[in-house]
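Ticket #4471: structure export looks truncated?
Reporter: QA, pipeline team
Priority: medium

Steps to reproduce: submit the single chain below to the structure queue and open the exported record.
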Amino acid sequence: MKKFKKNRACFLLVIAALSFSGLKTHAQPYQSIFGKNSTVFHIFTVITSYVSSEDVDTTNLLGVGITMEYKFYPQDTATYNDKLYYYSGSEMYLCVREDTSTGQLFRYFVEEDKEFLICDMTLQPGDTFIFPKFNELCHHCYCWEQDELFIVDSVSYTDGKKTIHFPKLKKGSFYSDHLDHIDKDFHLTFTEGLGPSYGVLGCPAVQFGENYLGLLLCAEKDSVLVYVTSPRLGCFQAAVSVEQFEADILLLSPNPVETTLKIHISDPAVLGGQLFITDIHGGVRWQGAMNEDVVILDFTNYTPGVYIAHYITKNKKASKKIIKI
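Actual output as written to the record:
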């Protein structure tokens, strides 16, 4: 398999002190996709395979691909068409501006000298969203999923943050095939504070990459992990499988929980892994190393609902549902 170079990206953050008409029904202010001091997006992209499929272990994986890190800092800015952008690495390639008055993301393409709407947080159930259609001669623009009509299936709120849910895509093998390897119901979402589940870049256009939408694996703000699509995948996909623990090693009590939750690892031989507590949308609520067999967590301020405890070692994982009452 050939080596790949990182693409460069740039972002515009438009802060507008306007009303949030149609954006939120909750009083909580809209949350930007960017952190105050730094933001890192880990985005997986399908790439062209130069080896036989028999030589690639795709068990529980996303298939052949590469994970890119895109880092953004408030001091890194560039200007195009009188608009100020944040950029990662270089201002030459992918550009996005965020309008926090509407929750919309617009990606600007240097090759076409225009911008396209790639995420819209004003949408409600039954509304439609059309992924932009690009010039096929522009490798950095074209996507197999382009020009597809999305219809909003439902809208949900977690701690006041809005998530827009879409049915599975009809086009593109990435979202229809590769994601079936994972034990999670993957579908397109737009989430406040994160953007689209295909990542804030849309098609990352990695060199030798296939022209499919990417997948946001993780997001960090100000050096804190705030989102993980699946602890089973982690923040970097590699050609290894992750097996389930054979024994029931993750013990939770009480469950349902109201105030204090005790998490016990029943087998001392598997200590040293990472424990994640996520909400049902993948937002990381707590994480830490399990060097002892018991950890006590305070659930007092958690919103009632369903959470997931994930315990991950180098090559195995266990997950259990937590009910907060």
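Status: closed, not a bug. The export was complete when the record was re-opened. Leaving a note from the reviewer for reference: The chain has two domains: 9-228, 243-324.
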